[in-house]
Structure formats: C-alpha cells, structure tokens
Design brief:
Length: about 375
C-alpha cells in the first residue's frame, strides 16, 4: 500500500464505504417488505456472530455482526439469510405461519421486495451524480479543431504498423463518427486486443485501415496497475479546455442517467473481456482491493470518495442482479420462471440450483480474495 497515505485511512475507508451501501441495500428490501406486510425477523449489517443488537417493537432483531462483508434481512418464513425456499415447509405452513411470511406473499410482491435492494443501490448512485451535476456543473471538454489529426507515433505504434501516416485525420472508428480526440479515446481505451476499422482522411481521400488495439499497462499514482487500449498516436500540441456547464436540478437527472449508463457499459465490457481472455483475471478485485481503493479515494478528499461510493454502489447492484441462485438476480430468475410456468419450480431442482449458486458465490469470493492477497506488495508480482 502507498506509504504516503496514513494507514488509518485504509482502516476506516472500507467500513465507511461498504457499511452505508450494504445497510441501504438491505434497507430497500426491508422497507418494501414492510410496505407489503411481510415481517422482518432480523436485519443484520455483516455476517456471523452478533456483536451488538436490539429487538424493536415489531419483533425485528437489528444487529451488527462480526464479518463486515455484507448483510441481510431475514424475513418471516426464511430458513436462512439467503431466503432459500424450502417447498415442503412452505406448503405445510399453518395459517399463523403464513401470515406475514415472505414466501406466502404474492409473486409480484416477492419480486418487488427482492428487486428493492439493487434498486436502492442504483438510486444512491443516481442521487450522487445528480448532486454532482447540479452543484458542480456538467464537465465539457473542448479539444482544438485539429485534435484528430495524427502529429506523431509512439514506439511500436499499431496505427503506424497498419499504414497510418503523420497528417492523417481520423474520421470514424467502426462506423462511428469521430469529432475530437476524446471520441478516439472512448472507442479505443476500453478495448485492448480488439481489431477496429479506422477511416482516415489523407490528401482529400478516405482510407480505411484495420488496426489491432494494443494492450498497455499503466500505473496510477498509488501503484495500481491496469490495462488500457492504445493505438499509439499523438495529437497536435494544445491542451483541451475543460469547463463546467451549469445545469439545473431537472437537467441533472438525464445527465446522471447517462453517466450511469456509461459506467454499466464499462462493467459489461470489462467482464466480457475477462471471460474471453482479453483482460487478465488479476484485474478483478475483492474486499482487500476495495478497501485499498477506498483508503486512496478518501485520501484525495470527500468528493473523490463519494464518487467512488457511487461506482461501488452500481457494482453492488450489478452483481446482485446477476442470475445466480442465492443472489437477488437468482431469486428474480426463479420468479420469472414461476410466472411463465404458473407454478414454482420443483423442490429438487430448486434445492440443487440454490446449492450450486451458493457454492459458486463462495468460490468466487475465495478466488478474488486470493487475487487480492497475491497482489499485496510483499508477495511481489
């Protein structure tokens, strides 16, 4: 870890980040469940042994648990914190047990209760971005008019190897028009090892060249390494002009939604690239990496930390909505199947699917934690 950052920032950064995000995620489940008359028996921040807690007048046990890597709401009728259904117990429940039970609520109510957790994380990110745009303004980057003209090449430039020349002007990438150098970065940076078709203007005529984007490892100020795509071109001298355009609260909402869309698109692209091998699995991160980044962003100030919280909140929503049994997305997938079949899946298939889902989630947690530990400085590379 970066020695220039006080160690206490790493210590408080992680709980300061995940604590509120997990609590609000579970609060989404709880509030919608309460709205529909479903009783919550336990609300836990963290897993494992209870460290502190109290029981409110509705009979809900609110507690802080030992392992601060998540949390859960356990509704009436749940046999465990994952809300894994046990069909025999559900079907054999007495009228008293059915009243206020999650599994005896209507299909629509169950789906809304489950979706409320990820929805809360999306709303948190939306609120943060709306606040940023409304208070600070919309950032506008203006490049010089000739920013898409090639002024030089980097060493081992993929563009030069493909036949590009100094003075060529980039018109389009994969059929998408290029207006300034920021567009070039957007079409290239996220796609290392991908082959693209670039349209250049040279001496008044158009030339189309296939270019394979290079994967270049970069290191930030904190020593974090990551790969970005580059085609090895230099734009003409002249820094872009950055201004902040004032937008009202109403206009800030569509800007925030577009920002969320861009981030989700980056997540999908990144995961796809790791699956197909375009990116190394070492770019995955677990609790240790999140804690490290949280401390680093905290050291840069409140705005950087809050922005990072919005990114992690979207990540939590995205991961939870994956159709993996035991995650919120897995429950929603089962409810979709139940809606189509007009009856729940069989007890055997449900049990097998949920057990496989829990095993997969645990395996992924162990895997990313192993990657986290292997990336620590005293293990080298």
């Amino acid at each position: 870890m970066d020695g220039s950052i006080p160690f206490w920032m790493y210590i408080i950064g992680f709980p300061l980040l995940l604590g509120p995000l997990v609590t609000l995620h579970e609060l989404g489940h709880y509030l919608v469940g309460r709205l529909f008359g479903v009783k919550a028996e336990a609300f836990s921040v963290g897993f494992g042994k209870e460290l502190w807690g109290y029981t409110d007048k509705r009979g809900t046990r609110w507690k802080l648990s030992a392992l601060p890597l998540g949390g859960y709401v356990q509704f009436k009728g749940d046999m465990d914190p994952s809300s894994i259904p046990h069909r025999d117990r559900i079907d054999d429940a007495s009228p008293e047990e059915r009243e206020g039970s999650f599994h005896h609520a209507s299909l629509g109510k169950r789906a809304l209760i489950v979706f409320a957790g990820p929805a809360m994380n999306i709303l948190i990110a939306l609120a943060i971005f709306v606040g940023f745009f409304a208070l600070l303004g919309k950032p506008v980057v203006e490049f010089p008019d000739n920013s898409t003209t090639i002024a030089g090449f980097a060493e081992n430039s993929p563009a030069q190897e493909a036949g590009a020349q100094i003075g060529d002007r980039i018109l389009a990438v994969d059929g998408e028009r290029i207006d300034d150098f920021a567009d070039v970065i957007d079409r290239v940076a996220l796609y290392p090892n991908r082959t693209i078709e670039v349209v250049f203007e040279r001496d008044g005529r158009e030339i189309v060249l296939p270019i394979t984007i290079a994967s270049v490892e970069q290191t930030d100020r904190f020593g974090n390494k990551g790969s970005i795509g580059q085609i090895g071109i230099y734009r003409p001298d002249g820094d872009p002009k950055v201004t902040y355009e004032h937008v009202g609260l109403v206009q800030a909402f569509p800007e925030a939604i577009r920002q969320i869309g861009r981030i989700v698109d980056m997540m999908v692209v990144g995961i796809k690239q790791i699956i197909v091998g375009d990116r190394s699995v070492k770019e995955l991160g677990g609790p240790v990496t999140i804690g490290k980044f949280a401390g680093e962003q905290l050291s840069m100030g409140a705005l950087s930390f809050i922005n990072f919280a919005a990114l992690i909140s979207l990540n939590l929503a995205f991961i939870n909505l994956l159709p993996i049994p035991a995650l919120d997305g897995g429950h929603l997938a089962f409810y979709a199947a139940e809606a189509v079949r007009r009856k729940p899946l069989g007890p055997r298939s449900t049990e097998v699917a949920y057990r496989a889902g829990v095993a997969l989630v645990l395996a992924l947690m162990v895997f990313v934690t192993f990657i986290d530990i292997a990336k620590l400085p005293f293990f080298g590379n």
